Every structure is written in C-alpha cells, then in structure tokens.
Model the fold of this input.
Amino acid sequence: MAARTIQGGFFVTFEGPEGAGKTTQIELLNRVLSARGYAVTVTREPGGTRLGERLRELIKHFDDPEGVAPEAELLLFGASRAQHVRLVIGPHLARGGIVLCDRFADSTTVYQGLARGLDPAFIAAMHRFTLGTRWPDLTFVMDLDVDAGFERARQRQLAAPGPADRIEAESRPFHEAVRRGFLELAAREPGRVRVIAAAAAPDVVHARILEELDRALG
Done:
C-alpha cells in the first residue's frame, strides 16, 4: 500500500535545552505517524548523513586541549546542515513525506548566536545559504528548568556512560541563556513554534504534542 503523502511534505523539528526529552518524544510521534500510513524519516542534527555524523563527533566530543573556537563550531554546524538538507531532508519532503528532526537551525540561532554571542546577521545569512526558504513547518520547544535538565543528563550518563559532551558540559549561565533564547524565539514566531512543558510525564507531553501536530495538519 502506498504511503500517505502531503503536498510539499511536512517538516517537524524538536528543540530545547539539554535533557528535555526530545528523543523520547520523537520516537513516540514516529510510531503514531507511521501507524497512520505516512512515510516518516527520523533524523538529527548535527548528523543525519555520513558526513554529518563525523562532524557530530568533532562538534560534541573533540577533546584536544586547543578546544574548538566558537566560529569554527558555527561553521561545522552549517556544513553538517547543508549536507543534511541536500541529501536527506529536502528529498524526503519533495516526496511528500514527514521529517522529524532532533534539533535544526533554531539551535544554531540560540546556542551559537544568543548563548555564544556570535553575529546574528552572519548566522541568518548562513541559514539562507544552507536552507534556502525551507524552514520547518512546525517546531516544538521542549521547555525544561536548567537544574532538571542537568539531572536528566547526569542520569543518562550514568545509565549509558560515554565520552563527555562538550556542549552539555558548558556552564549554568550558558544553559540558562539557551533556555531564555528558545522561549524568546517562541514568542517571536508563535505561528511556527510551540512551547511544550517537558517536565510532565512522557505520555502527557506526547498527548500535547500530538494535539498540536493534528491541529497543524488539519
């Protein structure tokens, strides 16, 4: 049976501070949409392609003493996204499918722009270069208190130890700026961005997300 399609596809992104539960909610939504017969692609940033996944390792886990300059970090995100849009996101949307993406350009605007203080005009130009005009149709900002996010990240590391994440390891003021940045973004773009209280139980959060998605899909 042919998959259900949407003219031009439908692009959904999940944003928010660390530990907000984006991965869990994407998995739950994927199950529902797939059961409804849609062709769904689940992907992430940085990553989503072979090149992007290698860049992801550099961005998140580069542990050389010289570190990663903020400007270099920004350009690595841009390179990953350009490959991602060209090879994965754009083609799937062109076929009428649904894309669920764990982080996208809004994360760059907030993390590298607001929290790191890099030039917003340059970041906007980079977005135009890597995305063209194809922004997400719907973005969920999973909002969570910074302390709760730290605790979730700690529990996740205990459950599945791995290399340190250099962005998760940033200071509390950095992560507070990230949270403020996402809430400011939602206030500026209420037509696209929905704030979801992520501290609630996963099934409650899922129900809220599904309600918003169904409204957007009509």
The two ends are 23 Å apart (CA to CA).
